[in-house]
Amino acid sequence: MTSIRCMRVLVVEDQKRTASFIRKALLAEGFAVDVAEDGETALELTGATTFDAIVLDIMLPGRDGLSVLRLLRERRISTPVLLLSARGETNERVEGLNAGADDYLPKPFVLEELFARLRALGRRGGEQASSVLRVADLTLDTVSRTARRSGRLIELSAREFRLLELLMRTPGRVCSRMMILEKVWDYGFDPGTNVVEVYVSRLRDKIDEGKASKMLHTVRGVGYVLKEAQ
Amino acid sequence: MTIRTRLTFWYSGMLVASLLLMSAVLYYELVYEHRAEVPAQQREQTPKQMADIIFLYGAPTLILLLVGGWFLMRRTLAPVTALTDAAERVHAENLRHRLTRSGNQDELDRLTGVFNDMLGRLDESFRRIRSFTLHASHELKTPLTILRGEMETLLRDAKTHPDHHEALEGMLDEMQRMARIVDDLALLTKAGAGQAPLVCEPVRLDELVREACEDARILGERQGITIELVACDAVTVTGDRHRLRQLFLNLADNAVKHNEPSGRVTVSLRRVADGTQVEFENTGSGIAPDQLPLVFDPFFRGTEAQRAKRDGCGLGLSIAQWIVHAHGGTVAVTSDTGNLTTITVTLPLSD
Fold first, then answer.
1. Fewer CB within a 10 Å sphere, N or C end of chain B?
2. Could you tell me how many helices (H) and strands (E) chain A has, helices first?
């Protein structure tokens, strides 16, 4: 799946090496990237160019990320903002969202997660609300809450259903452990158990049962991906 | 015996002694010295009269002095009592509290001053340790972010040799672990300083316990561990939903991890007189009595043998303990070696 249109992202990060790997990774993933090292530069750039999304680090020299965010919103710039923070506190997340951020990602993060969240921000409002999701011969009906592979009904618990739905909404893309915890368990932090691993392996047993071609894969150290069996 | 009683006794004892001494002197001076000049009849009467007078005036004086002394002692020792009470209230979380000085430069005022200075130094060193841990965990995140990002970029690069993939993936796994330890440390440090706020709302505990059991069931499936929820009263408390969920998931996970193949976990949620009691009981090798007081300590992971087969970093139960304490509850662990281990959480009911 490639993006229909190239998203232009502004990365505001003072740490040169962090900014550099984010830039490289986003470019490789097909985003157009601009980098600002501090808040003032970011404000200048947003005044001159329209971006599809802004990745904004909270800890910046001089004017910090949250105050940059407030100024942006004051200036009626409604570009979606994804906050990055090394602190990763629940109250910081709430504070950020209240200040007008659209999403929040604690450091260190999984790159795939940054991509997924940025894409979600780009799609904002325009997400298709199809009730039946389909990946190859696997279908998931979000209304009747049933899943089938090659027509065979798969029995799923509520949580397994939510996990499969999340994976099927981003086929071919890696879902990080943190993202799964957030969307399926509603955890804003890592509870420190291998509950995700165990659920995924159960789900894998169910959907890949008796099939030579596996659909649910583990990307070690990164997350999980559901893709058409090859 | 308190200092106050002892001092009062000494004080009155000395008074009685001086009174007796004074009577003896008076008797000698007034009666014995002049016995030749006094008629025989009077000689008999004088000592008796004297004894009467001494008793008549001495007894009330003695009582007055006893009572007065008792109160005087209380007054004098009041700052000491205040100091003791204050010292009793002091613990790592409220080192900022100071005692009020009388300002009259006496011994006790100086003692209070010295005590306050000591509190100040303690407070300062606790604060330094905390801020050090917080800064360290914060500073570690930047290199962790960069390392993680660079490794992922390498993994995604088609030019990376496939042989290196496994090594890189292993590193990413460890990186994730490290990030979690850093996060947990930061949380525990903030919790210790009372800086990890709870977001409180009414929470249905029974729902959270059921959910934790469901997760435990899945977690223990591979090892054939059965999870039984033997009691689940409907209970609502005021608390932080996310933290309470984390607490029960931690305890459930702990009960599965420290279990034996085909073991059993018994969970109960009961309304008791002074609140709610949640119990997680698991089969397994148990915990040695001398290790019991240590299970909530950060980085405690039991004996070498237990450590070898587990992947956690030993902060889960410390965090669980913080969550319970932050909600005004208590948590305790009991264990029969080679048999059952029970963790009991008691949370106060909301009004």
1. C
2. 8, 12
- The answer to whether residues B260 and B282 belong to one domain is yes
Convert the pLDDT of each residue in A149-179 to its tens digit: 888 889 888 889 999 999 998 888 888 888 8
- The full set of domain ranges for chain A reads 8-123, 132-226
On chain A, the residues whose CB falls within 8 A of the CB of B151 are 221
Chain A CA closest to residue B175:
A221
Is CATH 3.40.50.2300 correct for A8-123?
A: yes
CATH of region A132-226 = 1.10.10.10
In a shared domain, residues B229 and B289 = yes
Q: What is the β-pairing status of strands A223-226 and A216-219?
A: antiparallel
Query: For chain B, give me the number of helices (H) and strands (E)?
Result: 8, 7
The number of folded domains in chain B is: 3
| Chain B positions in Cβ-Cβ contact with residue A89 (cut-off 8 Å) | 190
Per the DSSP assignment, residues forming a β-bridge with B277 are B270, B346
* Mean residue pLDDT across chain A: 85
Of A89, A108, A191, nearest to B249 by CB-CB distance is A191
- Tell me whether residue B151 is in a domain: yes
Residue B211 CA to residue B214 CA, distance in Å, equals 5
Q: Is the pLDDT of residue A2 over 50?
A: no
**Residues of chain B found within 8 Å of residue A195, distances taken between Cβ atoms:** 215, 218-219, 249, 253
Residue B346 has pLDDT above 90, yes or no: yes
| A57 φ/ψ angles, rounded to the nearest 5 degrees | -80, 140
pLDDT in tens, B53-71: 878 887 888 888 888 888 8
Cβ–Cβ under 8 Å, residues B172 and A221 = yes
Confidence of residue A95 (pLDDT cuts 50, 70, 90): confident
CA distance A170 to A133: 10
The pLDDT assigned to A174 comes to 86
Which of B142, B175, B222 has the CB atom closest to A18's CB atom?
Answer: B142
- Rounded percentage of chain B residues whose pLDDT exceeds 90: 23
Among chain B residues, the shortest Cα distance to A88 is held by B183
The CATH number covering residue B246 comes to: 3.30.565.10
Whole-angstrom distance, CA of residue B340 vs CA of residue B347? 23
Q: Is residue B102 part of a domain?
A: no
- Indicate if B178 and B134 belong to the same structural domain: yes
Instruction: Write down the pLDDT at residue A3.
Output: 44
ipTM, two decimals, is 0.76
Confidence at residue A69, expressed as pLDDT on a 0 to 100 scale: 93
> Is A87 in Cβ contact with B146 (below 8 Å)?
no
Q: Are residues B14 and B143 in the same domain?
A: no
- Specify whether B287 is located in the same domain as B329: yes
Domain boundary among B192, B215, B233: B192
Q: A220 and B172 in contact by Cβ < 8 A?
A: yes
Distance CA B161, CA B149 (A): 18
